[in-house]
Batch of 4 targets.
Target 1
Amino acid sequence: MATGGSEVFKEAFMRNKLALVLAAVLMLTGCGSAAAATSAAAKEETTSAAVEEEPTSSAAKEETPGETTNAGTDSKTDKLVLYFSRTGEQYTVGVIEHGNTAIVAEMIAEKTGADLFEILPADDHYPMTYQELTDVAKREQKDKARPAYKGQLPDLSKYSTVFIGAPVWWDDWPMIMYTVFENNDFSGKTLIPFSTHEGSGLSGFDKKLQAACSGAEVGKGLAIRGNDAQNAREKVRGSVNGWLTELGF
Ligand SMILES: Cc1cc2nc3c(=O)[nH]c(=O)nc-3n(C[C@H](O)[C@H](O)[C@H](O)COP(=O)(O)O)c2cc1C
């Protein structure tokens, strides 16, 4: 299941972990180079750790509490973008206020006129620091957890195409997405997956989605680097638009 990209991600992840442990040891022993080790680790892991604002969870933003944000109930579109995305501290981008996957989801909705719905956890138990988040996600994956999401999805009967996106978490969909796949009826629809990642690409999102939603047809997916979504938006918009054109949208 692991790809070359995910190996790179994991190696970098372990390197950062080691550097942080080393820094902690040096600090405990009062060694003067502790600060340098900490900053080296922080530099590799985050590029804007200096942001002082309290990270805001997307769940905390009252304007989009798990509701369709594009068109509401009278929308005429038969396309929907469903996505899960996190703010706070993320890999290689530091503390972000707009999730990487959210940025791509919005580009898809903008180009296709689709409705947009953000999957939010029912109780926001996901930490806002990267290290802690990876631990929680790993445990959920190991336990095959099915974390509850907030509210109800929009009425799926009016949509024939659903774009579904999430960050790659440990070479897989975040477990909360399986809750979405298993608790809703996507049969007869075209499902088009997209991911943001830092090396693992699509991580088999398409095959895993097909396995979870056997009555649906799964189309060609798109994988975007999270760092590009954050920092190279016009390049990403070009990739998103090219992919949509290829798919006939
Ligand atoms: C818990 C966790 C696990 C991750 N696992 C992977 C991985 O296996 N492969 C990878 O390429 N990136 C991995 N990443 C990086 C994210 O996929 C990437 O930063 C993504 O763009 C975050 O998107 P978001 O801001 O929409 O949440 C992981 C990040 C987190 C927080």
Note: The CA atoms of residues 26 and 34 lie 5 Å apart.
Target 2
Amino acid sequence: MFPNIWCPGCGNGIVLGAILRAIDDLNWDKDKIVAVSGIGCSSRITGYVDFCTMNTTHGRALPFATGIKMANTDLKVIVVMGDGDCSAIGGNHFIHAARRNIDLTAIIINNMIYGMTGGQYSPLTPTAKFGSTAPYGNIDQTFDLAELAIAAGASYVARGTVYNVRQSSSLIKKALDKKGFSVVEIISSYFILLVKFIRNAIKISVFRDSLMKSSIEYSYLRYHGH
Ligand SMILES: Cc1ncc(C[n+]2csc(CCOP(=O)(O)OP(=O)(O)O)c2C)c(N)n1
Ligand code: SF4
Ligand SMILES: [Mg+2]
């Protein structure tokens, strides 16, 4: 597992651990698992797992994953995305994967920013918060990714945090076990942002704390019995 490319304190490693514990609990054959990611710090997760893996292009992990699942429905396909990857460039793929309710598990690491490329704001950056492309504060409204997934038709939607690791791992386990399009959003930490945009730090922390408390499991179990 070490060394890895992530900054000390980054939530990506915590999410990786949560995913691995969930898979271990399910006792899945690692040769039957395909982990697919796009581009971003979070997407580097696929580089640290001993499954079949595919590190695709920015925003396009879901179409690749859809193709893999269609070609071999026996495979367990897990898609790891960042908030930018999933909700900006990949937003169209996300809503349509949910609408089609394809049997994939999407795990979105929401650090509320474009991490890899230097702190540009994403569709999940809170309104009025700062980013390298929002020096006077983000003027846009924010998606609620979980609500978006539900509205688009996902079978199972949950939100966890990197501060509640056991809960996040159990949410991921349920999502993996669920037929149809399952989504787990994990609210994550981003320490580099806090250092770079120090005036933003307290506000982001307050916002994040409120989300931490709102860690929720949404049960849209359209496929009972699976
Ligand atoms: C088509 C395309 N556009 C832009 C980029 C540059 N790019 C790489 S990663 C990234 C944003 C990543 O943010 P996010 O998905 O939130 O992941 P994080 O790094 O925060 O984990 C961008 C814009 C790219 N690689 N490809
Ligand atoms: S830049 Fe941000 S998202 Fe990327 S590894 Fe560092 S803390 Fe994590
Ligand atoms: Mg991000």
Note: The pocket of thiamine diphosphate (ligand 1) is lined by residues 39-42, 58, 82-85, 109, 111, 113-117, 122 (CB under 6 Å).
Target 3
Amino acid sequence: MTAVNLPASDPARDPAAPITSKPRTLAHQKAKGLKPGSPKPAKERCSECGLCDTHYIAYVKEACAFLNQQFDGLETASHGRPRDLENDRELYFGVHQEMFAARNTQPIEGAQWTGIVSLLACEMLERGLVEGVICVQNSPTDRFGPMPIVARTPAEVLAAKVNKPTLSPNLSVLEQIEQAGMKRVLAIGVGCQIQALRAVQHEIGLEKLYVLGMPCVDNVDRAGLQKFLETTSRSPETVVHYEFMQDFRVHFRHEDGSIELVPFFGLNTKELKDVFAPSCMSCFDYTNGLADLVVGYMGAPFQWQWIVVRNETGAEMLDLIRDRLETQPVSSSGDRKQAVQQSIPAYDQGVTLPMWAARLMGVFIERFGPKGLEYARFSIDSHFTRNYLYTRRNHPETLEDHVPEFAKKIVSQYQLPKS
Ligand SMILES: Cc1cc2nc3c(=O)[nH]c(=O)nc-3n(C[C@H](O)[C@H](O)[C@H](O)COP(=O)(O)OP(=O)(O)OC[C@H]3O[C@@H](n4cnc5c(N)ncnc54)[C@H](O)[C@@H]3O)c2cc1C
Ligand code: SF4
Ligand code: SF4
């Protein structure tokens, strides 16, 4: 089991030391969250994870993923050890005991994929394993506007299904958990939110925290999302759902149920270059390395979800719904390296292919390109090299400390531009 009462980063602490419970410091009780719109401690690199909206801002210097990279220590605290950099699967996908592809045998209508995340969260509430679930619904006035909540019923969890493809302050509800006196909680979130949560989890007064993570990359703020939709979709106002898929196309689902496909290689890279949030251009936690259980799609065959069980808590969670899943082993084929190397200068120069050439390229790469885990490595390599360059160019003084060792090792396989 993952220990609770995990210590926040302490520079004096040996990250490999076993985790023991640490008394709560309660330093947060006198602190106050920032007012909406106030500048955040991580400045432009803030991913709006929500921590600074609460009194847990007291720990921001240690907890914020953009102010204090502490991957090894938090992996050790969460899983009992840091990832093994000599093991290729761990280097890329983090500490894990099991990995496979799965589908919910009774897909949840309107979920992002087959609704494995919502299914599990509902099950945990129904069985009384947790009293609340941190998740994010839509704001009533904006279908893509995030509205984090602590769900107490399956109906509230189901109302949070489907991605809100924007930065979301999920941790802004942390104070509610402490005030409600909750002791057992499930948190659903993406990497930057989970890094901050892991660093403060011993301060919330919980007996047990379960963490269900999703991979995440290339997120945007609400204005960036609008620009992306307007630049890329034929009908931005009717998009209800989109995903960058393993077939190298963006799949937009519209209100009338129609699907629009846009090849990655046809994206207007020049226009879109500054659309991704600076936080996401500086992020190296694509596969949510600190969650107990990860549910995504990147390492699975097209139209399957990808499940990564990181520790005993993750296995305990998955066991609740195993019999509701159709599964198959993960596989891997193709060779990503050349495509990644070529994408580095192409992205830098904002190369955009005409649509006919992009479609042709998409068809070719779908047939002969990397698949399964190799597709996931392709995506990780492309984003890590891009984000490494972004950090080197825009925040050179933080490069050494901010980039985790696993990401440095991945990036070192490629030749980067000198400046
Ligand atoms: C912003 C974002 C980017 C992603 N990028 C990738 C990727 O590049 N590769 C990959 O393999 N998988 C990615 N995923 C995960 C994937 O898209 C699915 O969310 C995952 O497979 C679960 O699908 P589902 O049908 O089980 O989820 P559902 O049952 O539909 O549940 C979705 C859950 O996501 C939560 N959520 C929605 N929006 C946010 C948000 N902005 N921040 C935090 N939590 C949120 C909701 O609370 C809900 O509980 C991403 C997810 C998000 C939210
Ligand atoms: S990313 Fe989160 S912890 Fe860091 S400054 Fe922003 S709100 Fe605060
Ligand atoms: S890409 Fe990274 S920083 Fe951006 S929202 Fe996702 S996990 Fe957070």
Note: Confidence is low (pLDDT under 50) at residues 1-20.
Target 4
Amino acid sequence: METAARGAPRGGGGERLLGELEARVQDVVRASSWWERHGLDCSILALSLLALPPGFLCLRSENVLVFVLGITILGVCHYTLTVKGSHLATHGALTESRRWSKIWAHFFVEVCTAFPAEDARYGHVKMHHGYTNVLGLGDSSTWRLPCLNRYVYMFLAPLLIPIITPLVAVERLRKVRLGAALRALGLISLGLYSHYWLLRHMSGFRSPASALACMLCTRSLLAHPYLHVNVFQHIGLPMFSRDKKPRRIHMMSLGVLNLPRLPVLDWAFGHSIISCHVEHHLFPTLSDNMCLKVKPVVSQFLREKQLPYNEDTYLARFRLFLSHYEELLVHAPPITELAGLQ
Ligand SMILES: [Zn+2]
């Protein structure tokens, strides 16, 4: 584990380095238009909403190819709205207006994803981003299911994500204040019921069971890469202890990994989750398109300062997790000693 830390300079200066990088990134942001900052990503989300009616109508067809096309459209749109949409909305990266950021978070996280927006914000923004790879805080341990064997975890468990998500949501709502819990419950039920209603009335599914099976099918279309990417990006990289966590720039440079660009996943999950995860962890309020735009600046800066810039392919990570499953996803990860970076 210590090898990954070797490239990092010893001694302080973390704040100064981050300040220097922030200034370079700010220059890029200031020189960017509204279209680049928000417009492009908002258009992808709008297109995903507009593609829903044709997707539901394709499922009326007797033709197998048209039916499969309908499932694909609805599945990809579901992931674009729930992963890309929820992620950007939770970070307030869709708009500069605070009010609209809140509204989008309720829409994408609660109506589309069936998860409480407040809980998503706390778990993702505050804990995962604030304490990336810090054991017991933002260490991605929610993704560990040590009771499952490697094949069940990597191949079968993802299919259960659409069922587990609303169940976890209900459990989490018990801890939220009553008003927020009722609002979240109402919006989650609205999202799930409208999906079911559209399948029965627009797509023409005759029985409740077939409509529910179709819901499960589209909602788990990209569940495999979703689960895999979430563990590939952080697990297996240096882990930090609560009292000796490194400075922000070292925490992100050591504890975050980028995958190469993958067209379907770039579209449905967003660059900030796939090829610009390091950039996203350093500048979480930038949209997907802006993360892609600042990527050359960030990667060059980290290399210039001899800080790690972790990159690996999906296939290489997949093989690593399958072969080192026990070590990476079953046992508690060891803490990396980072002298001088705290
Ligand atoms: Zn994030």
Note: Residues 1-11 have pLDDT under 50 and may be disordered.
